[in-house]
Write a structure and sequence with these properties.
- The chain has helices at residues 3-9, 59-81, 106-121; strands at 27-30, 33-36, 87-98, 128-134, 143-151.
- The chain has 152 residues and is an alpha+beta fold.
- A 5-stranded mixed β-sheet has the order 1-2-5-3-4, with helices on one face.
- It starts with a helix and ends with a strand.
């Protein structure tokens, strides 16, 4: 099944590629891969929440935002690759969670990204991953996700 067909089956519409907030591009291709820059959970150009997970933002909400980050990453990768059907799978996910002191649930938050990529790509969505707690993220975002995708 094509990625376009799978997205339709899941009723997922990819967002427009988020504009960079600094001096970088959203994604680049190299050697059979597409690497995305860190993607924030922008929805229509705005962050749905700001703050640290475990304080101002719940882990459950942050997991939803990580899912949004992954879809933003897929949109950026598809744009760089010439279409979403040029993406064959996922190699690696890096997730960064702005964490309140004592919050240790970063893996559960980043599952929001991993799970949606698994739904879309099936076995080709299985990937290596890092889930890291950080003090701050750009614009006060609670989560940021970067992905390395495999090209078709």
């Amino acid at each position: 099944m094509s990625v376009v067909a799978r997205l339709a089956e899941l009723n997922i519409e990819l967002p427009a590629v988020a504009a960079p907030v600094a001096a970088y591009v959203p994604a680049v291709t190299h050697g059979g891969l597409v690497y995305t820059s860190g993607q924030l959970p922008f929805v229509d150009g705005a962050l749905p929440a700001v703050g640290k997970v475990g304080a101002e933002v719940s882990a459950e909400d942050a997991k939803v935002y990580a899912r949004t980050c992954a879809l933003n990453a897929l949109a950026a990768a598809a744009d760089a690759a010439g279409g979403v059907d040029q993406i064959a799978g996922v190699l690696r996910v890096g997730g960064f969670v702005a964490s309140a002191e004592g919050f240790t649930g970063q893996p559960g938050v980043v599952n929001g990204a991993s799970e949606v990529l698994g739904e879309i790509f099936g076995d080709a969505g299985r990937h290596a991953r890092a889930a890291v707690g950080v003090a701050e993220l750009p614009l006060g975002s609670p989560v940021e996700v970067e992905v390395a995708f495999l090209l078709a």
